[in-house]
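Open question from group meeting: does this chain pack into something compact, or does most of it stay loose? Before anyone orders reagents, we agreed to write out a predicted structure and look at it together. Recording both the input and the output here so the notebook holds the full record.
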Amino acid sequence: MKARRPARTLVALATLAVLAGAAAPAAPAAQVQCQQFTATGSLVAGDTTGALRLFQAEPSGCAAPKACPGSSGPGPFFFDTYSFRNGPAARCATATLTNHCGAATRVHASAYGGSFDPADPCLNYLGDVGTAPPDGGAASFSFIVPASQTLVMVLNTTVASAECPAYDLQLSGCSDWGALWSAAGSTGVAANPGAVTFAGPVVQLKPTTALRVAQTLRYGTSNLKLDPDGFWRIRFRDNGAASRLRVWFKHADARTGALRTLMSFDSNTRPASAGFQLVEIPTSGIAVPVSGACWIEATLDKTGGTGSPALHSMDFIAP
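Structure tokens returned:
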């Protein structure tokens, strides 16, 4: 069985490798976009706790934003946080929370602009779900996310010391960012064209492709300058242990012939899914040399008959 990263873990998605003995830059904290985001998590022993939580009242809405309802305690209350970066325009975002906690507690959701302080749950408050939904139930709320601001979603238990085995969070409505480069403008070139199929933006292995033979694709990225606040977005499919996608953003120095890997991604670091997933890797700290050539290289690999890796699309974006 391949190791899989928990679905709610959003930090350090990037694998940064600098060759030729140079030290790799520190990986920045990951902040994904929230146009369409889904997560499944739990609130159990070992998670972060806080002494306070918000009072439960009515849900917030964009048409008439409400003030913070105040805090309640004492805890400890388990909580998870998810960080996002909104695009260049203020937007009305909507969050939907589904409770699978059982009878011991409920799960509550709230939104914050910039940062969340568990010692002061009203600081930077944007909105909350109001009354936490019952077990098996769902509730939605909306709130205004300022332009280019960090959005922090907080999920917490409502009963002190009680655990919640599962919840679902869906988030939508944030502002998109502009694309600096996209795979749509640079058709992938397959090293073995007979082993893959292109259907619109999607490239995947043919059913007759041999097992354990990685198929390589290459995308040109000439004249690309990354934004320090941007992301490398990759939409992909990895449906389990027999499936794998790896992607590298590479540079070749024409003067010396030196090769470097600037950024990379391995689908084995993400949870398996039969559908397509989106990963967003921060580009801060990644300097693209002005000379030489850059390109993206990807490999699709299946080690069993059930493997169905696919690359849907890629782009580099900036606020």
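Observations to bring back to the group:
The radius of gyration is 22 Å.
The first strand starts at residue 36 and ends at 43.
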